[in-house]
Design brief:
By secondary structure, the chain is an all-alpha fold. It is built from eight helices and no strands. It comes from Sphingobium fuliginis ATCC 27551.
Length: 262
């Protein structure tokens, strides 16, 4: 099993981003930040306020779900492009874009397989809870909580074990299932290290992004009222989140190289 050092990956990422920022950030802003910001502005207010504790999801136009799928595809394409730039020193942006476009179908196929697995787990859990509730309501309620927690735990575990999947896709030539197997194998024995890495970056992005949104939102409100505050705050949060994501993707590229032993 190859050794994996988060500290070493961070040092290499800082050095690489400082050297190649003129290539990385335009790609990130165009293909990651902009689609996310547009989708955020398109999100219906009733959906933005909805949470899982409510049993009924608000009615949302089909065009929004179509826009969300398109935004996710563009963001996935942008992430592959950034990884291509990080994994292949000397590659041009044009070459990285072409490589990402060629490998995008594999990434989409992987996403469909993983989504299908998770959907199957949710359906199986729902059926089990329904049957148990019909047999014994108190027992069904308790098992519903346990099974729900189990699904969440499996989802987190699978997400961490597949953390290096995107680098595998962009750096290789294998298809969907072979890429899945390879990505899963590379993280064997590194779960807790990668889990801590993701938790730390998620907290950092949330704290820094929230602070930027609050500060710039206040400035925007003073200049252009509530609408201006919401828009400027959203832009600031998107930019900060994108910067964090650039560092995260470059670190993933370095961790992938470590796992590959190259």
């Amino acid at each position: 099993m190859a050794t994996m050092s988060i500290g070493k990956a961070w040092e290499e990422a800082v050095s690489f981003v400082a050297r190649e920022s003129s290539l990385l950030f335009p790609v990130a802003l165009l293909f990651v930040a902009l689609p996310g910001l547009i989708l955020q502005e398109m999100t219906p207010p009733e959906l933005a306020k909805w949470n899982l504790s409510e049993t009924t999801m608000p009615q949302v136009p089909g065009s929004f779900w179509l826009a969300m799928m398109l935004a996710m595809i563009i963001i996935g394409f942008g992430s592959l492009t950034l990884l291509a730039l990080a994994l292949r020193p000397g590659i041009s942006v044009g070459e990285a874009l072409r490589l990402s476009f060629a490998r995008l179908p594999v990434l989409l196929g992987v996403a469909l397989v993983v989504a299908g697995f998770l959907a199957g787990a949710v359906i199986a859990t729902t059926l089990a809870v329904t049957i148990l509730s019909l047999i014994a309501k108190p027992l069904g309620a308790t098992l519903a909580l346990l099974l729900g927690a189990g699904v969440v735990a499996v989802t987190i575990f699978a997400s961490v074990r597949l953390l290096l999947l995107n680098p595998v896709v962009i750096d290789g030539t294998a298809g969907v299932m072979a890429s899945l197997r390879h990505g899963w194998a590379l993280t064997r024995g590194h779960f807790w290290r990668l889990f801590g890495f993701i938790v730390a970056l998620t907290l950092l992005s949330a704290i820094v992004g929230g602070a930027a949104q609050a500060v710039f939102g206040l400035i925007g409100t003073l200049i252009g009222g509530p609408t201006g505050g919401r828009l400027i705050g959203g832009v600031a949060a998107a930019v900060v989140s994108t910067v964090v994501q650039v560092y995260m993707l470059v670190m993933l590229a370095r961790l992938y190289r470590q796992a590959e032993g190259s």
